[in-house]
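Subject — a protein and its fold

Tokens — whole-number codes for backbone shape
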Amino acid sequence: MDKRTLILGALFTAACGAPGDLSPDAVQNIPDGDATGSTLTGTYDIELRVTECSGSCGPFSVGIFSASVCDVGDTDSGRIEVVQRDGHLTIDTDDLPSRFEGAAFGDGSFEVGGYATQFGGDLQITARSLGQVHADGTLESTIRSRSWGEVEGNDADCVGVREVTGVRDDD
């Protein structure tokens, strides 16, 4: 993904009205869960679909581009790397935030969060994902996120929801 795609992706997944569980502190301090082992570890091919957007989400001018950054129904695909170390889960993505960390539970469910900035810290991005990896290797998750601050002179405060589905790539 190029930088413009990452910025736009972060904005269209963001959410307004910042619930407390989307603060930087809250998304970066999710305690470990009760899982043991590394059952969830793997590479997953995923699809993301925007289901909700609200607040000041654009359109914003980014360089020479102007884009609507919050379009319900937009889809994207990608790969994520998941590492489970007992009750601790790390998910690395090509989007922002690029790292999510948090809890893995014995039933295959998880709760992770991440934080990132753009434009020299002028735009802050938080995200929280609740999901499940099933015994057959399929993944389902909901990501709620918030982006707020300034985008090249424009104020942003946007909250959004993405539904994620995927499957572990055992190759």
Q: What stands out?
A: Residues 1-18 have pLDDT under 50 and may be disordered. The two ends are 23 Å apart (CA to CA).
